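Troubleshooting log. The previous structure file for this entry was overwritten by mistake, so regenerating from the original sequence record. Sequence copied from the archived sheet and checked twice against the printout by T.R.
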Amino acid sequence: MSLKPLKKSDLGKAWMKPRMDREMKIQPEYHLIVSEGTNTEPVYFEAIREIINRQYREKIQLEIAGEGDNTIRLFWKARQRALESANGYRHVWVVYDTDDFPAEHIDCVVELCREHSTEDTEYHALWSNQCVELWYLLHFSFMQSDIHRTAYWPKLTQWLTSIGAGEYRKNREDMYKILYPFMDFAIANAKRLENINQGRPPSKSAPGTKIYQLIERLKPYLSEA
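Regenerated output below.
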């Protein structure tokens, strides 16, 4: 190739102009959601994934896995999935209930997520104390009482019945659609609990839930339910 400077007569010619008709392909942001439950949480998150896929598949993509495991083992399964995948996950969300698991196991997941996060992949511990039904209930009311997880179900039935949505049962495939209109209220209630639990580990934050962090991040893609 000649190193001579370009002639003035050549500067305006089409073959000298950069190609503007080739669009640069931007890779979507990949998210991995790994849950303790194999039905309740995956069904809820699958509804979100379907909504996002309708319009934003080129911008963001979700993969959802219900592992049927808990706390520390759940983290390592999420970690293994992330390492084995060719997608290059930007975010890995580890979704688990505290239930009656040992406090050190519940709290350890937060530390594991922090230790294994890098500039390329960030791990998030999305715990609910005591269970995911707390997140559902926060769509209808703020509650600060530390009640047993089984007490959430009749409360949810009362609220669902009041809006004509029938009784609550685990694995309902329409829960996301039902809850969507109250999303902002739930996020605000979860943040309010977070402020109350400031400084406490997950095992001592009852009630409390971090699921709002994922929902808030995905919210720009959820304008249509």
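Residues 154 and 168 are 7 Å apart (CA to CA). Archived copy saved in two places this time.
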